[in-house]
Each structure stands twice: as structure tokens, then as C-alpha cells.
Predict the structure of Beta-xylanase.
Amino acid sequence: PGTMRGLADRRDFLFGVAVASTDLLDPTASKILQENFNLLVAENIMKLQYLRPSPTLWNWRPVDDLVNFAKEQRMKLRGHTFLWHNQNPPFINRLGRNDRDQAITILEETITGVLTRYKGVFYEYDVCNEVIDDEGRFRENSPWYRAIGPEYIDMAFHTARKADPNVKLILNDYNNEYKGTIKGDAFYELVKSMVERGVPIDGVGFQLHLMAEHPLNEEALRANIQRFRELGLSVSFTEVDVRIKLPVTPEKEAAQKATYESLLRIALEEDVSCFVMWGYTDANSWIPGSFPGYGSAHIFDEKLTPKPVYFAMQEILKSY
Ligand code: G3I
């Protein structure tokens, strides 16, 4: 009960993390997962590049292992992700303007295949990921957009709902967390139009890959959460991390801690559906590979020791 997981369970708060397959096999990592989290998401293995590397090949085994681990540990699962512009297999990357029918078939087979095999298993699923670009327009460098057009998003949600009526269907993105920004407002308008069209969307995901050097705009975040709630949708924090521009200094660490604390408080106060971090340790982080010069983004350090921010978050969970 004193563990992070115990504290989250006590108030039915979904506190989660993205995991690599190796985490489940490693005793130290798996112990950290068990003691701290009640929700997991695969960092990579459910992306189509890995899950469906060719039209006839389905790589279920790593997903089954994750599903079984979560079941044994009584953890919930998020699904990530069906339609994205990254980490696709060649047969999807190849899709072009003249392949509309084929693309629709692949879309339907993939979503139905996964949600039939894992019917009732996922708490929520990122049906589409990052469909809006930084200018607030539909992202064009996606094979799905190229082959099908913007309707691919509605199609994906309808297909998912048909395959599993109970999984919560989520549209996930980054830089979409603030009301009053170009991308934040474009994302909201898209979602609002989906709701108005009767598309079966249940919630939105804010990834929240943040930087310690930019203080959180709490007001714009809360206002954004509220307007989605007014549409009848849930809001999930799906990929939280707060990277630091190296070298780490006590000031930057304090700023990072403040951001994690505010996010957790907002999640608790605004009834956010789940709080999921994109990795737990600097020992295995996507940040240095994607943002050279940045690091130390997670709540455990490279030696798997919890940082002060970890204990601060524990205190917040205790106090709500
Ligand atoms: O699978 C190969 C492996 O065979 C090879 O030996 C190794 C050598 O570099 O690379 C492996 O692939 C890497 C893959 O992660 C699995 O580890 C890719 O190079 C690497 O680019 C890929 O990065 C992932 C990234 O998405 C791809 O865009 C990160 O792990 C993952 O954390 C990141 O996650 C995304 C979310 O899905 C969506 N939101 C943004 C977030 C951060 O970029």
C-alpha cells in the first residue's frame, strides 16, 4: 500500500508506463513495474512494423507476453497504435494514391485482427496517432492519408468500434495539450467534428513530451481538458516525460520536478482518465536518440534509483 501502485490503486487512479519487451524479462525492471504501475503500454511492439511486418505475418508472441504479464499483475493495458505515419512495414509505406481500396482492406484487417484476438483486453486504444501536423493541418506524410484521404480517421474508429464495443477509442497526439495554440485548436476542431458526425470516439490523448525549460501552462491545459469533457470525451495523459537540456543542474531538475508535480495534480483534479509516462528510467530512454543534447527525462535515473521527483509524486498521490 505504501508503494506508488498501492497509492494509485487506493484511489482508482490509473498510473502507467510504456515498456520494452525486455522489461518483462529483467527481474529488476519487472519489480519496478509491479511496485509502481497499474497500467502498461507497449513502447514499440504493437506498432505495425513489428506487429504486422508483412501482409501474412502477425507477430503476436511479444504482445501475448505483455498481455499475460499484465493479467498476472492485475494491470490494465493501453493499445498503441494502429494508424500512424511512423514505424510501418514496407507493404504499408508503399501505399500510394492509387491504392485506396487496398489500403482500406489493410486498415480493416489490421484493426479487426488485433481487436478480435484481444477483445476485452485493452482499457483504451490509440486508434490513430499524430494525424495533425504542426501547422494544424492533416498530416500528409502518412501512407493512410496518401492512399485514403482524411476519411481514414473516421473509418478506423468505426472499424475499431465494430470489432470491440468495449475498448475506449482514443485519438492521440503531441503538442495538442493547450487551448489557444494552432495545433491544440486544430486538434480540438477535428475531434469536435468527429463527435458531430457520430464517429465513435471516446477520448483524446495528450502525449505531453515536455521540456523542463518551458514551464507548464496550467491554465491553457486545464481549459483544454474541460472543453473535451464538455464534448463528452475523456482525456488521457499518454506519454509523459520532461526532458532536460544537458548538463543537468539543480535548477533544471527543480523545474522538471515542478512540471511533473503540476501534471499529476491536474490529472487528479481534472479527472484525467490515466497518467502514463513514456518510460520510467534514463537507462532506457528514447530521448537521447531523438533529441541529442537532452536527457534525464524520467523519474528513475540510469542506475534505476528513484529521483526526488519520484518521491514528490508519491506525496501528491498520498494527499489526494
Ligand atoms: O528494431 C530496431 C533494432 O532492430 C535495431 O537494432 C535498433 C538499432 O537502432 O533499432 C531498433 O529500432 C528502433 C526502435 O525504436 C525500437 O527500439 C528505432 O531505431 C527507433 O527509431 C525507435 O524509436 C521509437 C520511436 O517512437 C520511433 O518513432 C522509440 O523507441 C519510441 O519511444 C517512440 O515512441 C513515440 C510514440 O510511439 C509516439 N509518440 C512519440 C514517441 C516518441 O518519439
